[in-house]
């Protein structure tokens, strides 16, 4: 996935990710009906949060909420990742919403990052 960066407000950021339908992540997930694995949406949020905060977080310390509303498919591309910094500090808390190219909500996530 390729990401494009755009900060909209002080504690908010918006990213767009294009999904490569030929990516190896679809090899077993699922042949004939490709769906982005859930772990990749978590990875995408963490990657965008790293860019937003200009820091390197290795993972989420806690994921307080994750809701998969609809599958992320190659035809969802580009996927928008809207981030809000809910609490800053050593371990910042991020709220994220992923939407498809038409603005339909795909995933909601809230979690605390850890370095």
Distinctive features:
115 residues, 14% helix, 6-stranded antiparallel beta sheet, mainly beta
Helix content: 10-25%
**End-to-end C-alpha gap:** 23 Å
Order of strands across the main sheet? 1-2-4-5-6-3
Structural class: mainly beta
Record field, number of beta strands: 6
> Count of helices?
1
Mean pLDDT: 89
The profile of the biggest β sheet is:
6 strands, antiparallel
Order of helices and strands: EEHEEEE
Tell me the strand percentage band. Answer: 35-45%
Shape: globular
Low-confidence stretches are: none
How does this model look, in words?
The chain has 115 residues and is mostly beta strands. Helices cover 14% and strands 44% of the residues. The chain contains one helix and six strands.
Question: What layout of secondary structure does this protein have?
Answer:
Elements: E1 2-9, E2 12-18, H1 38-53, E3 59-68, E4 79-87, E5 93-99, E6 105-114
Antiparallel strand pairs: 1-2, 2-4, 3-6, 4-5, 5-6
Short synopsis of the structure:
By secondary structure, the protein is mostly beta strands. Helix content is 14%, strand content 44%.
